[in-house]
Amino acid sequence: MKLPPFLRGQHSRKAHSSRYRSISRGLRNLLILAVAFSAFQWQSTGQVTWPKDLLDRAQQYVSRPEAGWHRAKDVLEEQGAVREGQPLPDFDLYGKVVRVSDGDTLSLLDKSGKQHKIRFYGIDTPELQQAYGKAAKAALSRRVYREEVGVVVVETDNYGRQVGTVYADGVNVNRALVEEGYAWWYRYHAPHERRLEIAEGEARAAKRGLWADDDPVPPWDWRRRNRGR
Fold first, then answer.
1. Which residues are tagged catalytic?
2. Where is the stretch described as Disordered (predicted)?
3. Percentage of the chain exceeding pLDDT 90
4. Are residues 127 and 191 in the same domain?
């Protein structure tokens, strides 16, 4: 598998950036107000105090349900719920797996006869030439080859592959591969996927799969070292 330069949800990131800018503006305005009020008190009385009513107003501002930070937290939780399947989400794609290319890429044939190439979101398995690369492919094949799977599509990468979370028999296959020690949590492309982070930590601690090695080489480092060979 070649390095997948994901687009990583550029459109959705713009929307989220707008929300976060709104939050920052609100906090900045609150800070400016506090500084101005403090300066006024210092000039008037020679000391700075924080009246209880101002503190109460600040607390009410950050505690109100429509506050920006509440909305941002809700957005992240909604995204996580969709990707992790709690409850099991509606699938963007559904069909039979007709090919497993490696540990994190498969081809799915939908009911209309159209074939889709799927790159697993948030994980990265060893390259086939690496230690555990063929084992990762075999582990994925055992789970999904010739089976019906559902996919929650997150984005499309520069190779035209649909990047998503794959479910087989209600199991999040992305996370299962990490739990079993056949994949890394791809933190660069999925930094907020807390459950993948936990799954990797548990696999490391138990020395499952590739973590049985003292110093396994992440596939992104392996690709960089072997680029052009």
1. 119, 127, 161
2. 210-229
3. 59
4. yes
